[in-house]
## 1
Amino acid sequence: MQLDPLYIQVLPRLTNTGSNEHAEGALPLTSIEIGFRHFQVAEGIGYDINLTNTSEAILLSGTATANLSASCDRCLESTEISLTGEIQGYYLFEPLEEPGDDKLETYEMVDSSGRIDIAPPLLAAIVYELPPVTLCRADCEGLISEAPLGAPVAESAKVDPATDGINPESPFAALKDYPFDE
């Protein structure tokens, strides 16, 4: 996934300490891929942000919103997800003088033409809010192969007590009588 930059011109409009500006719009993104997970983005990632000059940097704060569609992790049906995340960014005017500075904050730079790229924090705000498991509904039972849960089991699916349900042709059948407790 290639993330195109989304620049906002901050200089010369925000040259005075304490000056601020409000902006809103959308990052035109069509999909998000995280590992094996794939999400379609309906109308890009919307943003509503405030930019403030702190004398040494531009502080970015606000919210990002996105409507996504993905496959349910249990039944594989398509599902819709609406997310809202908090955006934060800190864009220095000049690089830090001490490269070994152990500040915990991360930062970017205002570029030489007075712009900042807000695409990475927008994407990060939405990715941070992604659910660990995507479900179409909270009570999704998942893929059901032959019969709904609680239905009677077909005769062919019942376990043969003589084999304890182990297929004698399975490579693991030899382990059936192995004493694992010793």
## 2
Amino acid sequence: MKILFLTSEGFDTPNSINHLCETLLEDSLKAGLEVHSISSHKTGQYDDIPKSLLNYEGFSYDIIHRKNINKNNFVKRYLDEVNYAWKARKIWKKHKKEYDAVLLQSNPNSVINAVLLSSLKVPIILNLYDVFPGHAMSIGVIKNKLVFHALRILQKLLYRKCTYIVAMSEDMKVKLLEEKVPEKKVKVIHNWFDDHAFVPISREENLFFKKYDLPTDRFYVQFAGLLGYVFDYKMYVDVAEKLADEKDVSFLLIGDGNQKKVVYDEIEKRGLKNIICLPWQPLDLIAHVYNACDVGIIPLKQGVIGNGIPSKACQLMAAKRVILNSVEESDYTRLFDQYKMGVNVTDYRPEAVAEKILYLKDHPEECAEIGEHAAAYSREHYSRAKNTKRFVELIETAVKEKRK
């Protein structure tokens, strides 16, 4: 059984899904599937293909070189995605009789890929990372209602073209059902952490601490990930400002994205010395990164939960860190309350978030207990072994149904 794995992202450029793509590809190959991957090259910061995939005989790949366009330029990005879809078509069309299924990684222009791929007449499984364009409308990237409704119509066409749509959460599934997607098409498979890499790591053994010579005697509040539109940076900066006089509390801001300059300028304007800004870290250090905090703060703008879900959550949980969510009330937040595996602030008040941080700092035993609950839940629901297996089983099911 041979799968076409098509993504508009590339392993060479830092993003929040590379670790998911790498492990999904590796476990698909381990399960005996052949995989042909088509991905892009933009920055060359990392290898185009992770070394972990190169030793598998059933793996082949093509790389499409493209410009690294500023994500703030929506029109240029959209046109570039259309061009990328056509270039990808030229590649997969040469092998069209070889594929049994397509695993399509979502992007704002997935509909173009899906329409083109439908000529293969094989199952198309869409791995959906956010419910576009609702996600973009919620956070203000799209403001024109006519544009929004046009993109929404195109997105519905995408859903019709796909055999199955994988949502990352029950909240996302609800959003899809609201868009009239048939329930039988929607499968919930959670994001995952790497079972082998994500274990608690002491500060003395933490390579990230050593790399940046971080003091080990502070209480660290961390945001690590994409500094993009969904990141509520004002909340993060407001909270840090309210705790500026707490000398034993430091904030880690680790990552990159189209809002990086805006965030850095805001930090500098306020003269905040308690925020340590560091670049995006390589995948082989990621477990050490998420172990480098006491609290992992996840501040997201209103409207994001349901359209998407933070991939960092399961990794923080696996490391037994306390997650502090600053998001709207949802199934996502209710899970944290129900299983006592994190802390939620749903009213978007920085002073409430600051109070939670001080409480957690002063109650280490409670932090440890929350961390244990989080790790147990993560092992049960978010492990790589369980969730990549579900993907492989879904692919096999789709192919068998098509052959019937």
## 3
Amino acid sequence: MQILKVIMYTAISTVVFASSAFANPYAEYEKTTLVVNFPAFPHYNSIVSVLPEFTRETGIEVEVDQLPYLKMRERQTLELAQEEGDYDLISYVVFSKADYVYADQLENLAKYFMNPKLADPNYDAEDLIDGYVQNIGIAGGEKGYLPGPTGSLFGLPSGSETSVLMYRKDIFEKHGIKVPETYQELLKVVCQIPELEPGMGGMASRAASGHQASHAFLLHLAPLGGKVFDNNWNPVINSAEGVAAANALKTIVDCGPEGAMAFGPSEAAASFASGQAAMFMDSIAFAPGFEDPEKSQVAGKVGYALHPKGVRRASQTGGFGIAIPRNAENKEAAFLLMQWLTSKRGDKLIAMAGGNPSRFSTYADPEIQEKYPFAKTFGEALRYADPDWRPIIPVWGKINADIGTTMSKVLTEGLDLQEALDGVAGRTRGIMEDAGYYTWQ
């Protein structure tokens, strides 16, 4: 970025007759109409609300095709495979990163950031939440999905999420309970709550069969020191750390509110919002809903803390990013839009409209913190967001589904934890072998 600054400033000072062009970098793209594909999700509702400001500043029009997430994914699968696509900018979840990059369907952003006519020298990329840039945007580096000498940037964060502990301040104060800072403290409080508050569960958590049970297990695996694979792609999910993570999930569900075994994210959040649980550990995206008195019975009673520490701090990385399809018609104008949306100004506008910031400076902004008291904690939590809490590889869907089904059996049928994870490790090795991950060993 410093090199780009030097180029820009030198050009302005030495080529006087061209100064007017630099004064309006959007002039060439005025009256361009971009078509973007976003999910029907609160963060993107906030983005849509600020798009008129982008058009006012740049003269670039934006048409939004906003769809429920699964329909959005289906539409993108069709659109990105065409020679000429309808979308200039898309939103995607991190699961899609491996699929889209592997299929060569996203633009590498290097040439746009190298172009002084397009790249804003004041963009300050170092201010972006780095764990989430790595998670949502980088591919081709270490393990194929992390930074490294061979890595490239294909997307930018837009709707960064991580896991935090949300708790009932009034219940904790009533019983003199210390907010858990470690997993040992957390699991103790989880089962202490039902004894102190009959009818109330300790923590509401995802646990439903499939992706939700897998997500919940992985949420505990990383901070407790576990991994799905070692550095040679050998499955190590059945390590002592993996067993500890499965035991943590089982303890949380056993001491949770009624119906906890069938909870997806919305059911777990609803349980906490209705006062049926004293804690909820999940994405920061749920916080605004808990503070809305029209939707939540616990508004004004919720405290926010970092994801508890096991052997280390390692909260989840989730949420969405934005990227330019390889078959887009207006790629340069699309880059200007994604740069504007993720700039300091754009990020704050989106945050003030209720979206999730993608920059540390936005979380630290006094105006943001005044409007959203939880912002300071969330900004700190995102510093511990682990881009490797789950592997983003093309075969992850199969492995993830198996973990989820197996964890469900642990929770509902009492399957032995070690036996369950040994089975997952064995089946995972077969999937990885078929996919060619041991070809060079």
